[in-house]
């Protein structure tokens, strides 16, 4: 659950909206997604003007005081930051072991309290999105959204053409069958380097695919995420998304239910 942000009360609601549904208000405050906000409301954890709210559909205005965990919350201006993550930074908002986190890199990126969408492990580099838009973050992270990611993979040895074909057709891992969307050798490089496009959000999925065939990944870089690329963004640097990019992310989520993925091949076809 996201932390509570204490903003200027004058910034409670966007100027263009006098009233907002309570679950949307909570999501705009960066607390959680609208679906999770509905759960908070039904569980009696949200108060409006000191009154416990336990039914859905409530609307609030800039004159209302919304509270969660005994403290007022305020709808924030939405912020979207894209980071090109370097190696040796962990994707967490804080670390008890005091290791470097991605939050150190975007400390001055936004006045709002933003959070990473999904994760990249410590040794993986590349694109990582941050936002306080709880609803968008939840949808991007949900497996059903089928967000496309492109990885540049450097292996410890040459990838055999037969193994490249196996990966393209799909491999069986301990938690199920996985099929990448595309895989190809990187043009102009040795066959230790491949590009992999995949929509699965399973933990360490790219590393596990290659490990299942006896390879180790020496370098793993995410070069594309949900249509966003690293163009003009060097390692350790960040930038704000453009209004057009945010609109495209929302369009992608709306259209995600219409995308059909290849079905798992029958055993006799493997």
Give structural attributes:
270 residues, alpha+beta, Structural Genomics Hypothetical 15.5 Kd Protein In mrcA-pckA Intergenic Region, Chain A, Alpha-Beta Plaits, Pseudouridine synthase, 3 domains, nine-stranded mixed sheet, four-stranded antiparallel sheet, 21% helix, elongated, disordered N terminus, disordered C terminus
Q: Would you kindly provide a written description of the structure presented here, covering whatever features stand out?
A:
This protein starts with 18 loop residues before the first strand and ends in a 15-residue tail after the last helix. The strands form 4 sheets. Strands 7, 8, 9, 10, 13, 14, 15, 16 and 17 form a 9-stranded mixed sheet that branches. Strands 3-2-5-6 form a 4-stranded antiparallel sheet. Strands 1-4 form a two-stranded antiparallel ribbon. Residues 1-16 and 259-270 have low confidence and may be disordered. Helix 1 (22-28) packs across helix 2 (34-42). The protein has 3 domains: 9-73, Structural Genomics Hypothetical 15.5 Kd Protein In mrcA-pckA Intergenic Region, Chain A; 80-143 and 228-258, 2-Layer Sandwich (Alpha-Beta Plaits); 148-225, Pseudouridine synthase (2-Layer Sandwich). It has 7 helices and 17 strands. The longest helix is centred in the last third of the chain and has 13 residues, at 243-255. By secondary structure, it is an alpha+beta fold.
* Class inferred from helices and paired strands: alpha+beta
CATH class of the largest domain: Alpha Beta
Largest sheet: 9 strands, mixed
Based on the structure given, which CATH architecture of the largest domain is correct?
Answer: 2-Layer Sandwich
Q: Could you please say which CATH topology of the largest domain applies here?
A: Alpha-Beta Plaits
Oligomer: single chain
Quote the beta fraction. Answer: 25-35%
Can you write the helix and strand succession as a string? EHHEEEEEEHEEHEHEEEEHEEEH
Q: Estimate the global geometry from the Cα principal axes.
A: elongated
Q: Compute the number of helices.
A: 7
- Overall average pLDDT: 86
Radius of gyration: 21 Å
Overall strand count: 17
How far apart, in Å, are the first and last alpha carbons? 42 Å
Fraction of residues in helices? 10-25%
CATH superfamily of the largest domain: Pseudouridine synthase I, catalytic domain, N-terminal subdomain
Q: What is the count of distinct domains?
A: 3
Low-pLDDT stretches are: 1-16, 259-270
């Amino acid at each position: 659950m996201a932390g509570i942000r204490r903003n200027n009360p004058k910034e409670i609601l966007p100027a263009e909206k006098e009233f907002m549904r309570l679950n949307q208000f909570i999501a705009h405050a960066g607390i959680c997604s609208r679906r999770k906000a509905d759960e908070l409301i039904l569980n009696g954890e949200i108060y409006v003007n000191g009154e416990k709210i336990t039914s859905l559909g409530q609307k609030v205005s800039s004159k209302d005081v919304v509270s969660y965990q005994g403290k007022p919350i305020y709808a924030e201006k939405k912020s979207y930051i894209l980071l090109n993550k370097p190696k040796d930074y962990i994707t967490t908002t804080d670390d008890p072991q005091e290791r470097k986190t991605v939050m150190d890199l975007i400390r001055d990126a936004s006045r709002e309290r933003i959070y990473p969408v999904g994760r990249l492990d410590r040794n993986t580099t590349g694109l990582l999105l941050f936002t306080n838009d709880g609803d968008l973050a939840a949808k991007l992270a949900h497996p059903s959204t089928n967000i496309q990611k492109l990885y540049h993979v450097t292996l410890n040895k040459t990838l055999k053409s037969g193994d490249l074909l196996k990966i393209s057709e799909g491999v069986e891992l301990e938690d199920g069958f996985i099929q990448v969307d595309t895989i190809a050798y990187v043009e102009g490089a040795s066959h230790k380097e491949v590009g992999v496009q995949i929509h699965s959000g399973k933990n360490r999925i790219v590393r596990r695919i290659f490990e299942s065939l006896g390879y180790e990944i020496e370098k793993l870089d995410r070069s594309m995420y949900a249509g966003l690329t690293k163009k003009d963004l060097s390692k350790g640097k960040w930038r704000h998304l453009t209004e057009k990019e945010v609109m495209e992310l929302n369009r992608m989520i709306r259209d995600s239910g219409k995308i059909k993925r290849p079905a798992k091949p029958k055993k006799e076809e493997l």
